[in-house]
Write a structure and sequence with these properties.
Chains: A mainly alpha (498), B mainly alpha (489), C mainly alpha (130)
Oligomer: heterotrimer
Low-confidence stretches of chain A: 441-451
Radius of gyration of chain C: 22 Å
Order of helices and strands of chain C: HHHHH
Number of strands of chain C: 0
CATH topology of chain C: Helix Hairpins
Mean pLDDT of chain A: 87
Structural class of chain C: mainly alpha
CATH architecture of chain C: Orthogonal Bundle
Mean pLDDT of chain C: 85
Distance between the termini of chain A: 38 Å
Distance between the termini of chain C: 58 Å
Number of domains of chain C: 1
Strand order of the largest sheet of chain A: 1-2
Largest interface: A-B, 29 and 34 residues
Shape of chain C: elongated
């Protein structure tokens, strides 16, 4: 059984998505349990897989028994083992948390929604687990196409935002495909490990450089790296809360994973950092991304949209960290994939709860929420502290590695950008905390002393419990950062990077 | 140095944190809630006290919670200096809890549960800072304290409180992220550890200019110590209820700032390194400037709490100055001043609060003749003033005496002049209040000649702290011993 | 100059795909009508499909079907056949492209139902008026 984990984690959700499609016609109430079961099996396999990897090292799984490089192989090492666990657990938690809001927001589309949801997770898990460059493209498109569908099921403006995302997403995926095409021309292989084996003698070729840059641009488009970010804020803001809290934490993070995989495995760090002299400009781009993300977030008067700009800044963190070209920076980037997925999930679940109760997420809708929804807002504070980077939440520790990396690389602008964005985050979040804390829910009695306390009106427990699990995870992951780094991430980075 | 491993430091930190859920659930039963606050305060104090004999023997107690990088763990270490600070803040919490009850109920404040909860969290963070074994743990609890104080500063939830809350966060959190965090990371990359060491962990790791940069970043970064120009949050934070100003903005929060700088100078850089590089003098002058300017500003303040706030700013810089003299006597002076000033200043704040509860008066100019109305309070005020000025028979005398000796030992005449001059200024802004309170003509008096004190919950604590100030004059040995142990000479 | 022309001519397949790609990109960026943008997107994807198809070609090679089937002792020379793999890959890519087109058109229909227009500027004005 445990030998089949790599296949199970893709096949089971895929079949589950099909079954949900059918079950939706029969009885809508069947959809949710099937989705939970499907993703539960996937999450179980992912965790089992990570434990096996910790035990045995890299696992190669040949689909259909065909040997690579002819057949498609799934490679699971410490890097994607970790990301797999994050993706599957985040998707499962969000699935449970958003049951009520799905039922509230589109009661007539439950079947299609869960089918798309599970299919999207299949795509994301597939991207992470696959060891074949073209297979990655196909799974990328599975995840993207379902993502467009999910994002379009939202407010009035959602379809147009999703359509704009579709244009950009398609360009991104096509660029990636084009890059893979060039790689294929040069090496005659699509297997990542095989390509890495053949490439070293061809490092001076301009086609390799071209392939690399085209792939990077494609991936950056997909992850909304700053100048290529324009599609993200609207697409995420106008989507339904269940969809945005799935997509916001995972899609950008999975694309960061793809970037790191390209750097570490396909092109090797030696090529990316030493032969190409592009680290410096890319880190500068990351600096700009962080600063601009922070500034754009400052301009928003709407919680969800503000969070989307924070995601853009966070993407800058990870791209910059990965391209610093040293071990500490790369550790920070990988750690931040985990942490940022959890932080973003936490904050988007909070938004989901608020939307569920208040039907809005503009700043004016947040007044008096500390009285009305104290448990949700407590989780919000934990998430906010993590994004700001206050110890012992996990956000602090990834920032620690990223800044250490910047110091070791001598890239002080990146350090200053990280500090700047932390300071801006303080302003951003305490502005919201102020509104939720000071301003009375109803404006009849403006004075703070004599207004009647608003009765507590919390989101249902099925939404609160997952939220609290995530909030607690932020602190627990923070405290166990040392173990995560020493036991997992350390082995995910090749020896070559110092 | 002998060390033993024990979970006690962690328990001391958790004592007040674990009581928070109980406080929340007993919102509807104020008496039960307050009883639990006392239980936590007593438990905390006893845990701290139980470690005192061990520490006085020269043994250190360590406990590691989680190690996240070599040399950067969440780790507690109870040494003499931490003990001194923990002792002061945990004992004063008991007194302040009693006072809080009198004050909050006397003024019928809203959201009292929230108030007591965050107060408890603040105390956890304070003890955490006192017992932290490395810069990372210290930073962790420092931030926790900043954030936990925010709801207390904003307690009134009116526009003024909101503005002050913003200012408070901007100064305190802003500086710690912008200055301390990078300085900490640069230090870590230089030395490979953040563990406080007897002679500093940065010795011999970088050039003089780099050390100077780090020192300046760290001294200004811990803005809770309110060194100018990062002092403006403290007067603004006076909008908080008086017990908050008393315990947090005269003892816990601001002393955490001073304590952090103490740790930076002794544990991060080490006195030898600073002496060799002549960087102590730099800090001395920064502190001296704050001492004088803050005292001058205090003279002009009419609102009593603001005057006390500026006085605090000046007194905090005494501590920094004493340490930065880098002479043994000066350091003992600075360390004991943490304790002595705490007892004196908290008395003064308690008095200001008691006056507000009993009469509603907040301005010095409205307090003419108040001594006849509230004699006990004003006598306590007088004792508190003496302690802050540094005159016998109060504990403040000792710390100032050592500070003066320290300037002589370090051969820093300008600093001696600063200390003596500012003592005169202290006297100039406190004694007239007392004088006007008691010795005024009946026409001048603004109060009826009838004794009417604040409620006993308010008066008893301030009498206790005033008496403590006097007792410390006769029995300063505990604190002096701890300070002597701490400098290890 | 003649050298330049010969380089261009020798690699004409690349030039064609790049031209097509740019046409597609131009349509996606500059066109105001949502469907025209979708058409641009399709051109863009097709350009890449053509690129893949063209790289499988070899001079003097034939389609990759073994004429003599099973059991024959003929030695097959890979040189004689064009590379089938890129073509196979493109079967998948075509499926993806069709699916993308489907999703895009569905979204466009939704947008049209909402705003009764497919012109982006008109939609934006309607949004602003709301």
């Amino acid at each position: 059984m445990s030998q089949q984990y790599p296949a199970l984690l893709v096949v089971v959700p895929l079949l589950a998505a099909l079954v949900i499609c059918g079950a939706g016609w029969v009885n809508k109430r069947l959809c949710f349990p099937i989705a939970v079961a499907g993703l539960g099996v996937a999450a179980y396999s992912c965790i089992g897989l990570l434990l096996r990897v910790l035990d045995e090292g890299v696992i190669v799984y040949k689909l259909g028994g065909w040997d690579p490089p002819m057949g498609i192989a799934y490679y699971v090492d410490h890097l994607n083992g970790l990301v797999l666990v994050v993706v599957s657990v985040v998707a499962l938690l969000n699935l449970i948390a958003s049951k009520k809001s799905v039922a509230q927001e589109f009661p007539d589309k439950i079947g299609p929604f869960y089918a798309l949801y599970v299919l999207m997770v299949t795509g994301l898990l597939g991207i992470v687990v696959t060891g074949d460059a073209f297979n990655l493209y196909v799974l990328l498109e599975i995840a993207s196409l379902t993502g467009y569908g999910l994002l379009a099921m939202g407010e009035d403006r959602a379809p147009l935002a999703a359509l704009n995302y579709l244009y950009m997403g398609t360009i991104g995926a096509c660029f990636y495909l084009l890059g893979v095409g060039y790689l294929y021309i040069i090496t005659g292989s699509l297997n990542m490990v095989d390509i890495a084996r053949i490439l070293p003698s061809l490092y001076q070729s301009k086609a390799v450089l071209g392939a690399f840059m085209i792939c990077m641009v494609g991936v950056w488009l997909k992850m909304a790296f700053f100048p290529l970010h324009a599609w993200l804020p609207n697409a995420y803001t106008y989507a339904s809360s269940a969809a945005s809290s799935l997509i916001a934490p995972l899609v950008t993070k999975v694309m960061i994973y793809v970037m790191i995989r390209l750097i570490l495995t396909v092109f090797t760090p030696e090529f990316a950092f030493n032969i190409l002299a592009v680290s410096e400009p890319i880190v500068w781009l990351a600096v700009i991304a962080i600063v601009m993300g922070a500034i754009l977030a400052l301009g928003e008067r709407n919680l969800k949209k503000m969070l989307t700009y924070i995601i853009i800044a966070e993407v800058g963190y990870m791209v910059g960290g990965a391209w610093l070209g040293n071990r500490v920076g790369m550790t920070g980037a990988i750690l931040h994939i985990v942490n940022d997925a959890l932080m973003t999930l936490c904050l988007f679940l909070v938004v989901g709860n608020i939307v569920h109760k208040v039907k809005g997420y503009a700043f004016e809708d947040l007044k008096g929420l500390f009285r009305k929804m104290p448990f949700t807002m407590c989780a919000f504070v934990v998430g906010a502290l993590s994004i700001i980077g206050v110890p012992p939440t996990c956000g602090f520790f990834s920032k620690w590695y990223l800044i250490s990396g910047a110091i070791q690389a001598g890239h002080y602008a990146f350090m200053v950008a990280l500090l700047f964005s932390s300071l801006v985050n303080v302003v951003l979040f305490f502005r919201i905390i102020e509104i939720a804390f000071f301003e009375p829910f109803t404006d009849h009695h403006a004075h703070g002393h004599d207004h009647q306390p608003e009765p507590i009106d919390e989101a249902p427990l099925t939404m609160l419990v997952p939220l609290w699990i995530v909030a607690a995870a932020l602190v627990i992951v923070g405290i166990y950062t040392g173990d995560i780094v020493n036991n997992i991430i350390q082995f995910a980075i090749p020896e070559g990077i110092i | 140095m002998e060390t033993i491993t024990s979970i006690k430091p962690l328990l001391a930190v958790l004592a007040s944190l674990l009581v928070v859920p109980i406080l929340v659930t007993s919102t509807r039963l104020p008496n039960v809630r307050e009883a639990w606050t006392f239980v936590a305060a007593a438990a905390k104090f006893l845990i701290v006290l139980s470690m005192l004999p061990t520490v006085l023997k020269g043994t250190e107690i360590v406990y590691t919670v989680a190690e996240f990088l070599p040399g950067a763990a969440i780790k507690f270490r109870v040494d003499a200096l931490g003990m001194l600070f923990a002792l002061v803040s945990s004992s004063l919490w008991i007194v302040t809890s009693a006072y809080s009850i009198g004050y909050m109920r006397g003024l019928k404040e809203h959201s009292q549960t929230r108030y007591f909860c965050y107060f408890a969290i603040c105390l956890s963070a304070t003890i955490g800072v006192a017992f932290s074994a490395n810069l990372l743990t210290l930073y962790l609890f420092y931030e926790m304290l900043s954030l936990a104080t925010y709801p207390l500063v904003c307690h009134h939830q009116d526009p003024e409180a909101r503005k002050s809350g913003r200012k408070y966060l901007l100064y305190v959190v802003g500086t710690s992220i912008a200055f301390v965090l990078p300085a900490m990371l640069i230090s870590y990359n230089l030395a490979g550890t953040l563990e406080f060491a007897k002679q500093g962990f940065l010795a011999g790791t970088g050039s003089k200019n780099l050390m100077m940069l780090l020192l300046v970043l760290l001294v200004f970064g811990f803005a809770k110590v309110a060194i100018m120009p990062f002092h403006a949050w403290l007067p603004a934070a006076m909008v908080a209820p008086t017990p908050v100003s008393a315990l947090l903005h005269a003892v816990a929060v601001v002393k955490v700032g001073a304590f952090s700088i103490l740790r930076v100078i002794t544990g991060v850089f080490g006195t030898d390194l600073l002496l060799n590089l002549h960087l102590g003098t730099l800090v001395c002058y920064i502190a001296a400037f704050t001492v004088i300017v803050a005292s001058l500003i205090a003279l002009t303040q009419d609102e009593l709490k603001r005057r006390l706030a500026f006085s605090t700013i000046g007194q905090l810089s005494y501590i920094v100055l004493g340490i930065a003299l880098l002479s043994p006597k000066g350091m003992i002076g600075g360390m004991t001043h943490i304790a002595m000033h705490a007892f004196g200043k908290i008395t003064l704040f308690f008095c200001a609060g008691a006056i507000a509860v009993a009469t509603g008066k907040k301005y010095v100019s409205q307090m003419v003749g108040i001594g006849k109305r509230m004699p006990v309070t004003m006598i306590a005020f007088f004792i508190g003033s003496l302690s802050v000025i540094g005159l016998p028979p109060t504990g403040g005398f000792f710390s100032k005496w050592y500070l003066v000796l320290g300037t002589l030992q370090a051969d820093q005449m300008p600093m001696l002049i600063v200390l003596l001059g500012s003592s005169l200024l202290n006297a100039a802004y406190f004694l007239p209040i007392v004088y006007k309170a008691f010795f005024c003509t009946p026409e001048e008096s603004m109060f009826e000649n009838r004794i009417e004190e604040a409620p006993p919950w308010c008066v008893v604590p301030l009498v206790v702290t005033a008496v403590c100030s006097i007792v410390l004059f006769f029995y300063p040995t505990v604190f002096l011993n701890l300070a002597t142990l701490a400098i290890g000479k | 100059m003649p050298e330049l022309i010969s380089t261009i001519v020798a690699k004409y397949n690349y030039w064609i795909y790049i031209t097509l790609m740019m046409i597609g990109l131009y349509a996606m960026i500059a066109k105001n009508n949502l469907v025209k943008k979708i058409v641009g997107m399709s051109i863009f994807q097709t350009a890449i499909i053509l690129f893949y198809v063209s790289i499988g070609a070899k001079r003097g090679a034939t389609i990759p079907i073994l004429e003599h089937g099973h059991g024959s002792s003929h030695i097959t020379h890979a040189v004689d056949y064009i590379n089938p793999l890129p073509h196979v890959l493109m079967l998948t890519a075509i499926v993806v492209a069709v699916a993308t087109l489907g999703v895009a058109l569905a979204l466009a229909v939704k947008v049209y139902n909402q705003y009764n227009t497919l012109e982006e500027d008109e939609i934006l004005t309607q949004m602003r008026e709301k």
